[in-house]
Design goal:
Largest sheet: 4 strands, mixed
Structural class: alpha+beta
Shape: globular
Strand order of the largest sheet: 3-2-1-4
Radius of gyration: 14 Å
Number of domains: 1
Strand content: 15-25%
Helix content: 40-55%
Order of helices and strands: HEEEHHEH
Number of helices: 4
CATH topology: Nucleotidyltransferase, domain 5
CATH class: Alpha Beta
Length: 120
């Protein structure tokens, strides 16, 4: 029986392969989810630089959040990263969920980024 780490690694490899094949020069919106916080960054792989980033630890995101590991925190991070990316001149991205399932916090962050104006 495979462990959850093995399944995560398999999903991560599969996802990263699809992102690399289908990016067409677009930056990627990468998500990292820990037990206490959620992080998102827009990465330009051609230049090897981070264009915009946000996390649930940012002062303007923390505000009145009870914890950084909630769907509400993911929504706030998604809106902030979309705003910062738009300010940096990025309109379209490729969503890189890593090895995480598109569900819960990851889905909430993606939908909030779409509402914030990012196209993917």
């Amino acid at each position: 029986m495979k462990s959850s780490k093995d399944l995560y690694d398999r999903r991560r490899k599969r996802t990263s392969g699809k992102v690399k094949r289908n990016n067409n020069g677009r930056p990627r919106l990468a998500v990292f989810r820990s037990g206490k916080h959620i992080y998102a960054q827009v990465i330009d792989d051609q230049n090897g630089s981070t264009v915009a980033a946000a996390s649930s630890m940012d002062k303007d995101v923390r505000g009145d959040l009870k914890t950084g590991a909630s769907v509400a925190a993911a929504i706030a991070v998604g809106k902030v990263v979309a705003e910062r990316a738009k300010k940096a001149g990025v309109d379209t991205v490729v969503f890189d969920r890593g090895g995480y399932l598109y569900h819960g916090r990851v889905k909430a962050l993606a939908e909030a980024a779409r509402e914030g104006g990012l196209l993917f």
